[in-house]
Amino acid sequence: MAYISASVYTSHVPAIGVAIDQGKTQEAYWQPLFNGYGYSRQWMRENPPDVIFLVYNDHASAFSLDLIPTFAIGTAAAYQPADEGWGPRPVPPVLGHPELASHIAQSVIQQDFDLTIVNKMDVDHGLTVPLSLMCGEPSAQLGAWPCPVIPLAVNVVQYPVPSGQRCFNLGRAIRKAVESFDADLNVQIWGTGGMSHQLQGARAGLINQEWDNCFLDQLIHHPATLAKVPHIDYVREAGSEGIELVMWLIARGAMADVDDPARPPTVKHRFYHVPASNTAVGHLILENG
Amino acid sequence: MALEKPYLDIPGTVVFDAEQSRKGYWLNQFCMSLMKSENRERFKADERAYLDEWDMSEEQKQAVMARDLNWCIRTGGNIYFLAKIGATDGKSFQQMAGSMTGMSEDAYRAMMVAGGRSVEGNRFMHESAGTPGQPAGNATGQGGI
To answer: What are residue A4's DSSP bridge partners?
Structure first.
């Protein structure tokens, strides 16, 4: 039986990808940030999953205003890095897991969530930056990421975005779907994006460290309560793009303790840093109890 | 009954809802086209001619040529889409975001390194216009929101 072993949460700032690709990770500005992921890369090497289920948002790369799916699951065999306006990131294609992805799509739709099924799309920094942060640079010889990835793209571009509660419940449905897959697969679920940031208007640059850290506390200890926080609080307190944080609730809803309080997660790593370009960066690794 | 839009009283912020999306459809689709390098080259070679291929309003075209992102947003642009204009120009996201605040690039970068813009005074329209040294509502040009 497939199972979810752990959840990972991280922001996915484009400038982090640029810093990695241009060899700037040891510069004074970036060093504290990359040091915060040192443990994470070691943890990944020691706890390699068979598949990563990666929740992220597309930044107007695969989806334009022609098509705006609230939740889109990738069931393809491979995804190419997107050209976001400065050429594609020099990273390998992301291999998918069509079998498990299709199984999850069917199971989750039968649990009343309307997923859009995607067999062809490019993936942008929202997906590749978390992979770079957690896995390091893929070996030049192998030219591949350590394991297959199932992308789940969430609309946080056009309002209204899904509520925290709906994301949390979707996570629970994904856990059930994974656990009903026959092959014995170790699956990690990652929630990416977010923490305080506002990229637009005269309020650009908003950072609310107190709110962010409270979010991390609540995510660990009281996720069901956190799921009830309305959108307006995210936007007012953490900036217009801080709304990306609802995606973390999908990963959290997939953890065992949500339906089995006897299995509280272990916090393996917690990190917070300001700034990376315009944003606060938050990061957590939780293992299932 | 009218839709609830509690986000209309946040200073310096335009939430990209269905109304904005409808207004900005072609402007944002033009931005998407800049994901192809040949389109970026054509745009750079003759901006006006390239923009004229799109069903955008004259104001939207002027806003793009002025690189006034606040103006673009007022006419329906969305920052995730507009970022592709900045990428075409070789600007970082920080330069783009900073350009909307009325602050100099250096002052914006320094504010971020010092922990970013405080939320105090920036939650509601009726609050004072930003905390000291952090102008929240006086972006220049066509851009004041």
So the answer is: A187
